[in-house]
Amino acid sequence: MDDEGYPSNAPLHVLVHWFVRPNELPKHRVQREFCENEVLYHISGTAVIPAFYILNSCTVSSSSASAIRTSTTVSSVAKVSHTSFFCRLAVDPQRGLYYELNWDALRESALKTVPSEDNHLEHDESATVAWPNTRRGDGASPRKRRRLSRTAIDHASDSDPDAEGSEDEFQASHASVDEDEDGSGGEPSEDEAEDDHDSLAPDEPRTPSRRGRGKRKRAPTTPRTPRTPKTPRRPRADRVTLAQPTPHSKAALRRRKKTALAVRPPPPAEGTLELALSNGLEGDAWERAMHVLHVAARPGALPCREQEYGRVLRAVEELLEEGSGGCIYISGVPGTGKTATVHAVVRELKRMAEQNEANPFAYVEINGLKIPEPNAAYGLLWEAVCGHDAARDGHMKISAKEALRNLSKHFSNASREQVGPTGSHACVVLMDELDQLMTTKQDVVYNFFNWPTLAGSKLVVLAVANTMDLPERVMTGRVRSRLGMVRINFQPYTTPQLESIVKARLLASKTAHPPLPPNTPDVLAPDALKFAAMKVASISGDARRVLDICRRTVELVHPLRKPARTEDVKAVIKEMQNSPTAAYLRELAFHERLLLASLLKCVRREGVEEIKWADVQNQHRIYLNLLADDDPSRRPSPDELLLVFDALLASHALIAEEGAAVARKPEGERRIALNLEYAEVERVLGEVGGPKWRNALNV
User: Which segments carry the region annotation Disordered (predicted)?
Assistant: First the structure.
């Protein structure tokens, strides 16, 4: 670099083209077998990086002799390091397409265009050497093509020795014209005399001349005949504007409706219920019915949700096909099949990606009830973005701040060239129980809704919440503005829908292997099933509730070996509503019930049963603003709230730490726990409190 005139401290940048390891590809894609040291040529992964990013040299060859054969799959070679690599394929990670590639021939053809030391190219845009896979000037305008061609001609004339003489003659004509215009003829000017004097004494310092610096007079040219003015053309109405619409704008939605994809029926279910049916069921008709009616036996796709399934699938598939990001807000009361429907959509998209029917993507599920704090969602998303396999290697040991910093840098640079080949594929995120991820500043929800709006992010967020008006009631304006216009609401189940759900499960129990005899009586009479469905539909429309009632009814009549009637269903409902625990909870005061609800919330958030008293007090203040019907400014003092806590301790609804060691601790460090059944407390508090309490407790 010294002989080319660059300073010694000039930073050196290198144009690199990336290769991709198989473990850096999206997880859900067309599966192939790879060698242990195999890399794939990224068809569009280029970047200009500083030279200090290059750590060492390696060898890449397309010869099969350099391949290290192994029987393991790609997921087991993530941490293997080599200095000699085998390349036989090129890949488009965004679309999941593979191309056969002869890397040795590609490299040889590229090196032929590299300038030698004797005939080096000028450092100009037109002289930049590109790899053969990039085509320059394809999208250039005609004016730019003409300018590039003139630049190429100028470079050709500079390299031609015959053109050098013509250039001297051209400069001499300029000099003669300048002399004629100055009127000095052939006599030297004062500046020229001064230059001659300087040439005799080059070591003496002199003041540089300011006259005529950088100004050259051009030779007069023959004026051209002006052209006849043309009639201005009217712009075409169907011309695409330069500014593309945002993913959730009205223009983008109208364009998607014109090219709406065909809605496919839900795929074959793969839930725990179908797995149990495929393995076979044992026992009589009542035992089989109790097994399939259990809430834990989740089907792959719920009945009566085909329309919602089609809307969610179409919305996500369009975003993956366009290569853009977006948010989809899914709302509905608990027990309406929101999460089960989204899981069915994700399974279908995985199948399509593996069969090359859809673009590949990475998938991560973030449940607000399964993480210790909302900030932990950053680490889970970063694992999916960077391709970390948590199932094999465990979760990454990274803090929430560092994960947030990496995600912000990744998505902010998504529209520009990044350092590295990763991040060119889409990522689908399911944010379940969105209510639990709301913080005081709402920064977690804001970041997850803001990143999909950035250009080139390819982040698709499926936000699932239990309330339809959560954005308008809780979210701030900046969060609500980034949520988008795609909202899908799951209505509560009606009586016919609840009947069809229970009938489908009972029919599956009869036809499972080994099948029951044809003369086997029904375990649940039609009138009993209809009564249970009507009772639940009039209150909440929760499918889990009607399944629980039917299962307990079948369990009640099992010793008698008779079909369950309406009277049996009424007895079960009365028992569930009038248990001693339910009667006790209905008689509690407002702040006593609110304290129990606060304890349940803390247990779900922390994941442990023993909670500090200070945390329960803090949650009580939050619920007081949300669930108080009267003036919430009437807050109980800490001493008054301690009296409420003592009353619950006296009735053995709560238990707390005791002993001398606890007495020396601060009052807020004392740990308490619930001494009642969690599901029963949630159900009764939801029935007594109404919709607000059910939404707050997620029941």
Answer: 114-271
Two tokens, residue 699: 């029941």
How far apart (Å, rounded) are the C-alpha atoms in residues 362 and 457? 13
CA 671 to chain centre: 38
Q: Is the pLDDT of residue 193 over 50?
A: no
Pair (326, 269) in one structural domain: no
Q: How far apart are CA 87 and CA 333, in angstroms?
A: 52
Place of tokens 């394929």: 89
Domain for residue 129, yes or no? no
CATH number at residue 295: 1.10.8.60
486/603 same-domain check: no
Edge-first strand listing for the sheet containing 671-674: 611-612, 671-674, 654-656
Rounded distance between C-alpha atoms, residue 324 and residue 318, angstroms: 9
CB neighbourhood size of 656 (10 A): 16
d(CA 365, CA 432): 7
Could you tell me if 373 and 48 are in contact, meaning their C-beta atoms sit under 8 angstroms apart?
Answer: no
Tokens at 15, concatenated: 């144009």
pLDDT digits (tens, 9 = 90+) for 199-245: 444 444 455 544 444 444 455 556 566 566 556 555 544 444 444 44
Q: Residue 365 forms beta bridges with which residues?
A: 430
Closest CA to 100 of 40, 45, 59: 40
Residues 477 and 499 in one domain: no
CB 601 within 8 A of CB 617: no
**Would you mind telling me the total number of residues written for the chain in this entry?**
699
- DSSP bridge partners of 426: 361
Q: Where are the beta strands (DSSP E) in 544-667?
A: 611-612, 654-656
